[in-house]
From TrEMBL:
Keywords: Cell outer membrane, Membrane, Signal, Transmembrane, Transmembrane beta strand, Transport. This is TonB-dependent receptor plug domain-containing protein. The lineage of its organism: Bacteria, Pseudomonadati, Gemmatimonadota, Gemmatimonadia, Gemmatimonadales. Pfam families: CarboxypepD_reg, Plug. It is a multi-pass membrane protein. It comes from Roseisolibacter agri. It is found in: Cell outer membrane. Residues 1-19 form the signal peptide.
Amino acid sequence: MATLAMLATLLLAPSAARAQQGVIRGRVVTPDATGRPVGAAEVVLPGLERTVRSGEDGAFQVDSVPAGTHEVVARKLGFEPVTRRVTLAAGDTVTLVLALPVRVQALAQVDVRDRAAAPAVRAFERERAIANGGAFISDSLLAKNQHSPMSNVLRRIPGATIVRVPSNSGGYNALGSSRGRQSLRGSKYCFYQIYVDGQRYFAPTSANIEPPPDVDEFKVADYEAIEVYRGAAQTPSQYGGTGAPCGTILFWSRTRVAR
């Protein structure tokens, strides 16, 4: 009888566990009246180290979510990230509509008179990278590799590692370092903070549990310079602080001139 009771307990345990879980699903859309779907957006539950991607129709679903209160973050390159806090009851399904505002690029259009300034600015960034011991990826190299994935370009940097991050869609590439603290899902890697045109796009949390962005979302053809700093000591002070223990990468968008 004891054996039968133990067997029954083992068989019932998964059902009991499922009963304490729920589902978070929904759509990622634009905030305008049309509510156009935003495909390939990352939907992250940082507290659970869970990441899924929205489909072409903007739909996403996260199964087997423990009952309780969770942060849900939606993000995609070119959009402002959105965070929602949801409370999920056991066995329940929560449906969300996550509206991502398009990120406004203040420097997307510049006056023709500024055309001559761009080379001087890039020269300064190159000198800064070299002085700090970092790496500078020039416009000429990016132009030669404009059809390559960004991960292929970043693989050339000594000391930087392309880390394969698991996800529900099969995994993606992130920029990491083997130095530093224990990180995502027990990995020995920690991840670089990311800036785009001087604005912080991603910074690892103190526990390093929020999944990093997919570097291949950054299209090589969109950028005219990249700075890479391998650790806090190399990172310039204006980009330093607690977000830089593992390294920093600065993406500088290709300047478009008003016509």
